Amino acid sequence: MHPPASVAETELIGHCKQGSLKHQEMLYKHYYGFAMGVALRYCLTRDHALEAVNDAFIKVFNGIGNYNTDRPFKAWLRTIIVNTAIDSRRRELKHQLTTDLDDAAPIRSGTFIIENINAQDILKLLDALPAIQRTVFNMYEIDGYSHDEISAELNIPASSARVYLARAKEKLRKLIVAI
User: Fold this and answer.
1) CA-CA distance, 54 to 36, in Å (whole number)?
2) Which domain holds residue 172?
3) What UniProt keywords apply to this chain's record, in alphabetical order (predicted)?
4) Which of 21, 22, 37, 71 yields a CA-CA distance of 20 to 30 A from 10?
């Protein structure tokens, strides 16, 4: 069960449903930081993230009449941002070279104890991943998507999603050792 929305948030959403531009702007400003944080995990550049956030808010305002108040607004917004960023990444991924997964080497597993690593270091490590690996890693490890859901969202086989995740983890392990 999620905590009830604050009265201010409920009123703000209600005014947005009525089409109030002033309240839409207030909602945008209130959730902008959260939205950028989500989008930056899926987009390669800050400009792409900003574009994804703006596109997502357009979708939010166009579809806010369908928003189910039984669900937390932040979760609904996050879903829209993730899907918008993925749609944008999907269009970009069509133009990237792909690797034949049949030639993939098995990934060995290892355990690393990470101490003294901060959020900036983690973001830099994620930025070092190839785009598809970064997207799959974010979806699976951070946002909790299953391999089947990732497969459906990115139009790739679930087995490919597993391989991309394994490769991302292996590359992150190597990068952590280098720190």
Assistant:
1) 10
2) 101-178
3) Sigma factor, Transcription, Transcription regulation
4) 37
